[in-house]
Specification:
Chain lengths: 265, 300
């Protein structure tokens, strides 16, 4: 594994790469796209585990942190979805350059899946795309985040504590800022409005069967994607609440690696 | 300020990010800071607060390394038979060795939250290169004042009395439940706190270690969050009541953060935490400010 920074000197992106451990006549590379905020922290170890599995299966792997997230440059209130999409593009370029490859595969979890899809639909070099519990609708995602934060505030009120100051209350979600820039760029997201095929092969994999994801499956088929849908009832690692438990959803990770191998043509 | 991702340790299997101050600061004149994993959270810390802390401390002239112990974040799991306690000490020492070789720094301050605070205490005790420690929600011991406040709050809670008289089950059992009598650890759960039980060394052992550390010249800053520690710590001067014999020295500082949860979720609490630590580190370990620090450090 290599840890390094890449990209624009003013907004350096943190990357972690894993070289393929199996020699292949046709090298291949996959870029992993994290979710955002608290979900990114909770998913970190599972992503590392996924990287190791992929490298053992013959893939070069790059994980990276968006600007203002993880170890990348920028404060948590400085990025937004447009910036993070630019970071996905930079990571794809980094991965292609590092290995001299024309095609790249993308795996994203939650908002990472959404950003990966949006970026992939603007390019022609994404071979395979894995959407792990993707966010389809930015407005719905914002409502979900706000509901989680309100529930946390309600538990806080049970302690008899004063409500947080107004500026804190409106500008954050579970420990991370929710700026107007983030809100605005997320509100514009609607994967069902996608008009261009993001990749030839797409896997949608979910912990719970969801009607929206099935609609996305149909929509991507209309866009001429070869789509596979899988529902594996495993732990939703991005929802884990305590900091002394760690869950790696083995079955989901196994299926992702198996699907990539199966559809690698 | 510059951030560099590193792999360090004897096997190069431990991950971290070093934040170096801008030119103009000679790193050898100040201790370097080690940020230790909060439980199993990886090196960015809860709500990414370690990243902000590292950058603020580097801006104040301190080389800062946020690292992952083995099996956490990007660090590999160990294949030997060391206990977690032994491996965290060894790996922190490898981090210090790395900074000694690469930056010429020989003195260190360790900072940790929860399990990181426990590690910070042990590492400080066991390695003489450590001259300061910040322990957030670390060791705490219940006192008479603790129990007084704990049960007193329940007795005056309107909601709890209301629950008692509106329910259908046995009143005696519910009275006990309301007062949370019988199993203190089971009882002391709060909605935003932690749901697991912490184990601390005996109070006398901690007192003995603290005395040794103070004699060694180590500075320590204990921070307790109300929500994270209300099983164990619930008022401002509890530390003073726990260790009255340490009252007169200027090496310890204690802060009780009211209405903060264990991971300092609110942005205002994160800012407060970062500002307090930066202020303590800067005033304690910047030579010109040392005398002022000793005067202003809270005597406990």
């Amino acid at each position: 594994m290599k840890l390094f920074y890449f990209g624009d000197p003013s907004g350096r992106i943190f990357g972690a790469s894993e070289a393929a451990r199996v020699a292949s006549s046709r090298p291949k590379v996959v870029v992993l796209c994290y979710p955002m905020g608290q979900e990114q922290i909770r998913a970190h170890r599972a992503f590392r585990n996924l990287s190791m599995r992929l490298s053992k299966a013959g893939w070069h792997v790059l994980r990276f942190d968006y600007f203002g997230c993880g170890d990348s440059a920028g404060e948590s209130d400085e990025g937004d979805a447009d910036q993070w999409m630019s970071d996905v593009v930079a990571a794809i370029e980094q991965a292609r350059l590092a290995h001299g490859l024309a095609k790249v595969s993308l795996i994203g979890l939650r908002l990472g899946a959404t950003l990966a899809t949006l970026v992939a639909s603007q390019r022609n070099d994404i071979d395979q795309l894995v959407l792990w519990d993707p966010i389809l609708d930015g407005r719905g995602f914002l409502e979900e985040l706000s509901a989680s934060h309100r529930a946390w505030l309600a538990r806080r009120a049970e302690m008899g504590w004063d409500p947080p100051k107004q500026d804190d209350e409106v500008a954050q979600v579970l420990g991370f800022p929710l700026t107007n820039g983030i809100r605005k760029t997320l509100e514009e997201i609607d994967l069902l409005g996608l008009s261009k095929r993001p990749a030839r092969n797409v896997l949608i994999i979910e912990a719970d069967e969801d009607e929206d994801a099935r609609r996305l499956e149909v929509h991507l088929r209309v866009l001429d994607c070869d789509v596979e849908y899988q529902c594996l009832p495993e732990a939703k690692i991005w929802l884990r609440l305590t900091m002394n438990q760690r869950v790696v959803p083995n079955q989901t990770l196994e299926q992702i690696v198996a699907w990539l191998a199966r559809t690698d043509r | 300020m510059k951030e560099t991702a590193i792999l360090f340790g004897k096997l190069g299997a431990l991950a971290g990010v070093v934040t170096d101050p801008d030119c103009g600061f000679d790193p050898r004149h100040r201790p370097a800071i080690l940020l230790l994993n909060a439980g199993l959270l990886y090196r960015v810390g809860p709500n990414r607060v370690y990243v902000r802390l590292a950058r603020v401390l580097a801006s104040a002239g301190f080389v800062t390394l946020r690292l992952d112990f083995s099996g956490i974040g990007d660090s590999e799991s160990r294949r030997d038979s060391l206990t977690r306690e032994e491996s965290s000490l060894r790996e922190a020492q490898e981090a210090m060795d790395f900074l000694a070789v690469s930056r010429g720094i020989e003195r260190f301050v360790v900072i940790g939250l929860c399990g990181g605070a426990t590690n910070a205490f042990r590492i400080t005790r066991d390695d003489p290169r450590v001259i300061g420690a910040v322990m957030i929600d670390g060791y705490a011991y219940r006192t008479f004042g603790y129990y007084l406040r704990h049960y007193g709050r329940r007795l005056v809670s309107r909601r709890r009395w209301s629950n008692l008289f509106t329910g259908k089950s046995d009143s005696g059992r519910r009275l006990r439940r309301m007062l949370q009598i019988g199993n203190a650890d089971q009882a002391l759960v709060n909605p935003v706190g932690v749901s697991y039980v912490r184990t601390f060394p005996p109070r006398d052992a901690t007192l003995s270690d603290l005395c040794v550390l103070i004699d060694r010249g180590v500075y320590m800053f204990f921070i307790y969050s109300e929500g994270g520690m209300d099983r164990y710590y619930n008022y401002e001067s509890q530390f003073e009541d726990t260790f009255p014999s340490l009252c007169s020295n200027g090496k310890l500082r204690v802060k009780f953060v009211r209405e903060a949860d264990h991971t300092f979720t609110l942005l205002s609490h994160q800012r407060m935490l970062v500002d307090d630590i930066e202020d303590w580190v800067s005033t304690t370990f910047t030579t010109s400010k040392r005398s002022a620090t000793i005067r202003s450090t809270m005597a406990v």
